[in-house]
Structure formats: structure tokens, C-alpha cells
């Protein structure tokens, strides 16, 4: 009897690292063949990319030990046998990539704004932060602070937005677009589902129109047409015009994403909320939207990442974002021909931000799922 | 009779498209009366009770609840809903909120009750439905019977004068039906005005003051349980009872 009750362990070859390898990489001969092929490709690729980006690359000095000030001094241009990437271009132009043409004396304001942005995001990203409530107050007033810091006013010297550029413009457009489009999108989604035909029709028209037009068209529209709608004498800032276009564009997409979430909520939830005497707004704010937004997290993050990358289109209306500065640098005779380095760097910066967003959405999904479904208490 | 009625339906008609789902329905319910509504599916019983708190709109006739006539007037509808609690077949708990939050939500936001008071109330209601130990769990972690009892507690927390039950045990596994019915019997004995749509004839015999039998959108027979089960008048009722009792 005792032997019968003994706990039987699974066969050795199906657990641990060896088990994992057997099951996932060498399950049968096709599987093994593909595994070997992939290993071979990685073996070829990884040393090459490491060598190009790091080991043979110039960072500040070339292989002769001179400080690089133009593309002719890059090791790979002095001696094609010798040298990989020439990151000196990023080093020399780093200021422009990060701040554009923001005056150097005032640049501490941008740095402070960057720092405060991280601080403002903190309570949003970590819901378990101690004293989160007080941090959130800061998050709410941050846009106002950032506006005065970056733009000037309240004793700060004014820095016109045509001096802004690089990462600064990318972040301003991306963050403002995403942050404003979210509430507008919610209102549009609710409006489109409204039982009042006028509201529903207006929201539907707005969404369909904005969604049916390419972002570039909207940007031109913002640049050229928007001033026509304003009263005479009021000149709208170029960046603000673009911001309006980007926000409208994003809110139409956000509205459709959230509408998708709303449609997934069973009618019983509405009925239960109504039977408890809740008004339309309470029902939506407390019952429907929290669930709908939870369901929509993956597509919300998806469209947000899309917008963050689409901000590069502002280059066509003459605003120099991160990519715009990169292209500007390429047009400089000093740095002609360094497109690999510049596009690699710009891609890397975009990737860091979008990958961060994507990871955050996964974390959020995991966290909220345990709340709704089973999981530990 | 009409004087002491807390719910009064007069010549109520309703259509879903061309389908005439309620046909000249008349029903008077007195305070503290317990009505059990039964009938084959599609007979309009759910639609009728859903008209009482205006989850469905009637198109003709009048419905008066606690002296308030249900019309398009939103304020009246809100007032009626504060008086009338409802329990659904599918429980309809809010899955993103804990059991306690499910119960405190409406008292806090609709009745403006302070949070501490609402939580105390929630715990009292959970004692009544006998699951205070589940207060911090989420609906998805509870069995069907427990969820339905939370749903009852959630309705009771708004201190309604009338409770509507729309097939409260139909979605439950057999062994969980009793725990929900026990709570409903306690509620009936406590003097709550109740309209219950159910096929639980044992429950009907124990608590009902009056049975209402519906078929094809009409009230076919209204009688005391004693008369309804032992000596029904209409042939349709006899047929229904013979089918349901011989299962």
C-alpha cells in the first residue's frame, strides 16, 4: 500500500532545461533542423552587428585617436578596412537630437520638464506607489507647469516653438496627443452609441470623417486651413496647429477602439446599474467604462504606439522632430553619408519608447486580469 | 383596492416589433404581498416585471409604482428605481469590483452615503444572505449561488420597498438553488413586497400570497396558491401544471 501512495515524479527527460530543450527545440527532426538553421543565422549575424555597432565603431575619436568633427574623419572613411559605425555624428549633434534649437542658456528648463514628466508618469505606472494620491495631483498640474516651463511666461523668457525640435517635439506631440485623445475618444465613443440621434450622428460623422482622411492631409489642413477659422488677429502657433490635427486624428481612432470595448459589455451590466437607480453618467463612469477600457487596453496601447510613431509625419509641415533632426543632419555636408548611424539611432530611440509602452500594457493586462477573474485574493 | 396597491398595472400593452408581447395586462399588488408569476417561456412574464422598473418601456396603459406613474419623465424613473430592487437570472454582478464594492457602490453614489457607513451596511447585508466571509473576493471567484446571494444583498442595500426577481434560480446548478431560495424565503417572511418570476413551485407554495399564470402575453389565471395548484380554472393552467409538476 505504501509504495502505491508514493509520489511518482515525471520522467526526467521532460522537466528542467533538458526537458525544455527536447520539447521546444529538438522535438523531431524538422524541428531540430530549423533550430540548427536559426542558430547558424544568429551565429553569423550577432558577431557582425556587435562588431559594427560597438567593437569597431568610433564614438568620439577615430582609430588614429583624433576627435571626429566631420564624416571624412570617420575611421571607415579614412580606411574602409578599419572601422564600423561612426557614432561621433550622434555625439556631436546630440544636443539637437534631444532639444532641437532650444537656446543653450534655457535648456535646463527642458531638462527639468523631462525629469518632471518621468515624475508625473510614476503614479500612473505604479499603482502601488505610497502617497500615490499626492503624486497624482502633481500629474494633473504637470501639463500646465510644462507649458510655462517650455514655452515661457510667468517670468521665464519666451522660447518660440520654432526653436523646439528633436525628441522634445516628439515627446510633446506624442504625450499631448495621447493624453488629450483619450478623454475625447471616450466622449466620442459614448456619443456614437447615444440614443439621441443628433449626438450619435454628429459623433459618427466626426469619427468617420477624421478616420477617412490621411494624417498628412489633416496636418496640411491644420497648417493651412485652421487659421482661416480663427478670428482675425489671432495667430495660432505652428506646433499647436499640428497638435490639434494630431489630437483629432488620434481621438477618432481612440473612439472606435473604446466603442469596441463598450460593445463587449453585456446588457445585463447596464440593466443592473439602472435597476440600482444610477444615472447615465454614473453608470458609464463607475460600471461600463472601467470594464470597457480594461478590455480595450491592447488596442488602446496599439493606437497610442501608432500615434507616437506617426508624429514623425510633422516633418512635411516643417517641424523638426527626432527624425526631422536626423534628416537635417544628413543634409549637412559635414555628415553626408552617415545615414546608417542616424537612422539606427532614431529607430533605437523610438523603439525604447514604444517597447516601454508595449511592456507596460502587458503588465497592466496581467494586473487587471487577476482582479476580474479567479487568481489569488 | 387600488388605494392600498403599491404596484398597479392597467391595460398594459407592449410590442417587440410586430410581436404583441404584453396584451392588456392588469395587475394590482398590495403592500407586503408576495406574488409568484409563472408560465411557459415567451409568455411575457419577464417583460412584465421589467416594465415595473422601466428596464422595458410599455407602449399603452399605465403603470403606477408607489404612487409614481412611469412615463418618459426621467426623474420619476429614477425615483421608482430607488424604490424597486431587482435580481436577475444572470446575477449581473459588476466583475471589476469586489463583493463589498458591488454592494456599497449604489449607496455611496446614488444615496450619497458616507463610505464607512456604506461598508457597515454591506457587511450587514452579507450577514443576511449568509456570506460575510466573501466580502473581499471578486464575483468571478464565487459560485453561482453565492453570486446570486450577493446580487440580492446588493439590491437590499438600497433599502427598496419592492423586490423583483426575474428567474433568480434558473441559471444555478441544482444544489445551489436551495441556498438562494432560503434567502428569498427569509426576505418574504420579513415582510418585503415581492414579485417573483420562477418555476420553483415548492417555493411558490411556501411563500406566495397569490399566483399569476401568464401565457402568450396575457394573464390567464390569478389565484391563491391553494386554489391554483389544487383546483385551477383554466385548461391552459392545468396543462402547464401537469407538465411542470410531473417532471
Features:
heterodimer, A: 377 residues, mainly alpha, MetI-like fold, B: alpha/beta, 4-stranded antiparallel beta sheet, 39% helix, globular
Question: What's the SSE blueprint?
Answer:
The complex is a heterodimer of chains A (377) and B (247).
Chain A: H1 2-5, H2 16-24, H3 29-55, H4 75-78, H5 88-99, H6 107-125, H7 132-151, H8 167-192, H9 197-211, H10 215-229, H11 238-263, H12 267-275, H13 280-310, H14 322-331, H15 339-372
Helix pairs in contact in A: 5-14, 6-7, 8-9, 8-11, 8-13, 9-11, 10-11, 11-13, 12-13, 13-15, 14-15
Chain B: E1 5-16, E2 19-30, E3 34-38, H1 45-52, E4 60-65, E5 68-69, H2 74-83, E6 84-87, H3 99-109, H4 115-128, H5 144-156, E7 162-166, H6 174-189, E8 193-197, H7 201-207, E9 210-215, E10 218-223, H8 225-230, H9 235-245
Parallel strand pairs in B: 3-8, 3-9, 6-7, 7-8
Antiparallel strand pairs in B: 1-2, 1-4, 4-5, 9-10
